[in-house]
Amino acid sequence: MEQVIVEAMTVTSSPSAAAYGSQPSAVAWGAIIAGAVAAMATSMVLIALGTGIGLTTLSPWSGEGVSAKSIGIAALIWLIVVQWLSAGLGGYLTGRLRLRWTAFAHDEVFFRDTAHGFLSWAVAIAVVVVAAGTIATSSPAGTTRHAMTGSAATDSLGYFADTLYRTNAGNSENALVVARAATAEDVRGETSRILARNLAGNVNPDDSAYLTHVVAARTGMSQNDARMRVDQVIASAKQAADEARKSAATASIATAISLAIGGFIAAVAAGLGGRLRDT
Q1: What is the DSSP string of the chain?
Q2: Per residue in 94-144, pLDDT tens?
Q3: What is the per-residue pLDDT across 173-189, written as a single tens digit (0 to 9) for each?
C-alpha cells in the first residue's frame, strides 16, 4: 500500500514530464514565416515610400532640390530605418503569434521568443537575398551586367593585345602617324583600357609616354602640354576611383551594421510580443 502511494505521489508531483511531452516543437515555423512575410511586406512599402519621397527632392533646375551627396546619405539612413522598422514588426508578430507554453520557466520562454524573432529576421533576409539574386541574373539588366563583366575581362586582355601593336613610345613620329590614322572610337577604347590598367597602382612609364604621344597627335598640343594633361587625367581618375571605393566600403559597412542591429531589434520585439501574449 505504501509503495502504491509513493508511486502515485511521484507521478503527480512531476507533471513537467508529461507536460513537456505534450508541448509542440520548440520551433514554431508558422509564426516565424508569418513574421518574415510581414517584415518583407513592410520593407517593400517603406522602400517604395522612400523612393517616392526621394524623387520629389530632385529638380532639373539649377539651385533647386538637394545635392546628389545629400540624397545618397538620406537614402542610406532611410534604408537603415526601413530595416529596423520591418525587423521590429516582424519580430513582434512572431512573438505574439507563437503558441503559449505553460510548462517552461519564464527565462526559457523569453529565450525561445527572442530566438523566434531572430529566426524570422533571418528568414526574411535569406528570402530577399535569394530573390534579388534571381532577379538580377534573369532580368535584362542582369544579362547586361553579365555581358559587361565579360566585356571587362575582355578589356583586361585587350590591354595586352594593344601593347603588341603599339608603336615605339620614344619615336614620336611613328606615334603621330598611327594616332592620326586611328579612328576616335579605337583611340578612346585603347585609352580606356590603359587608364583602367593603371588606376590600381603606379602608372607604367611606357603607358604614360604612349598616351602623351597619342594626345599630342589627336589634339595638336605640344609634348609637354600633352604630358601634363595625361598626368592630370590619371590623377583625377585615381581620385574618382578611390572615392567610389570609399563610398562602396562605407555603404557596405553601414548595411552590415544595420542588418545586425535589425536582428537584435527583431529578437527584442519578439520577446516583448511574447510577454504581452502571456499576460
Answers
A1: -HHHHHHHHHHHH-THHHHHHHS--SS-HHHHHHHHHHHHHHHHHHHHHHHHHHHHT--SSTT-S--HHHHHHHHHHHHHHHHHHHHHHHHHHHHHHSPP-SSS-HHHHHHHHHHHHHHHHHHHHHHHHHHHHHHHHHSHHHHHHHHHHHHHHHHHHHHHHHHHTPPPTT-HHHHHHHHHHS-HHHHHHHHHHHHHHHSSSSPPHHHHHHHHHHHHHHH---HHHHHHHHHHHHHHHHHHHHHHHHHHHHHHHHHHHHHHHHHHHHHHHHHHHHHHHH-
A2: 999 887 776 677 788 889 899 999 999 999 999 988 887 787 666 555 454
A3: 555 555 555 667 777 88
- State which residues form the domain around 158: 148-239
Question: Within this chain, do residues 137 and 152 fall inside the same structural domain, yes or no?
Answer: no
Of 12 and 186, the structure prediction assigns the larger pLDDT to 186
User: Is 1 contained in some domain?
Assistant: no
Check whether residue 136 and residue 262 sit in a common domain.
Answer: yes
Tell me: do 31 and 137 sit in the same domain: yes
pTM assigned to the model: 0.63
Residue 245 lies in a domain: no
Q: How many domains does the chain have?
A: 2
Structural domain includes residue 186: yes
